[in-house]
Amino acid sequence: xxxxxxxxxxxxxxxxxxxxxxxxxxxxxxxxxxxxxxxxxxxxxxxxxxxxxxxxxxxxxxxxxxxxxxxxxxxxxxxxxxxxxxxxxxxxxxxxxxxxxxxxxxxxxxxxxxxxxxxxxxxxxxxxxxxxxxxxxxxxxxxxxxxxxxxxxxxxxxxxxxxxxxxxxxxxxxxxxxxxxxxxxxxxxxxxxxxxxxxxxxxxxxxxxxxxxxxxxxxxxxxxxxxxxxxxxxxxxxxxxxxxxxxxxxxxxxxxxxxxxxxxxxx
Length: 267
Fold this sequence. Notes:
The structure is a single chain. The protein is an alpha/beta fold. It folds into 2 domains: 4-206, 2-enoyl-CoA Hydratase, Chain A, domain 1, CATH 3.90.226; 210-257. It is 42% helix and 15% strand. It has 10 helices and 9 strands. A 6-stranded mixed sheet has the order 1-2-3-4-6-9, with helices on both faces. Strands 5-7-8 form a 3-stranded mixed sheet. Helix 2 (65-72) links the parallel strand 3 and strand 4. It is globular and about 60 Å long. Mean pLDDT is 89; it is low at 73-83.
């Protein structure tokens, strides 16, 4: 039993974690299942945008420390907590997908806690939609468990070094309003509506020409590895094929009268 349901609605795929009795805390089996489901989504030509949601009012309370304490992971550096590379060659993080580099965007729909490793999964996602009473936090600070699913990398890139260190060193609760203010959240929505709002956002993104969208996304992610000149060259290499194909088709639609005056409704 992996406590994961995958639902597909046209180009939008929703991954639902149903381990609600444990506030959707991750175990090794769940991490493996989530990785496999996300890789299948990435390989599916009919799928465009993913949504990750936790049923029962909790996004994810981190790795299940009860599992770790009873031998579910011998050490942080080895044992079951350190999920090895799969047969497909993709590396896994202890929380599952946090070392994957997918070609398609995934949106976190956050209700309740997204803390410790659950926060790291949320940081791995491209966008974060939080309910007004949801929260994040490096809650593993209390137990001497480090951030090993990309938290020390992605958090400073999202909110800046100073704010990241504040959250990393104190482990304090970060409520939705502050998450929005500092850039941890992209949308804050009413209680009980995170999944609906994230899926609506996913459908909006899925409407656009996907080759160009994915090329721009990939360039934005890769630019950290280059100096300015290298980043600009990488942007051109990745985007130029779509400037000719999708861009020309889009320009023709505009010339025919679509999308005038910034209209996104008819494109």
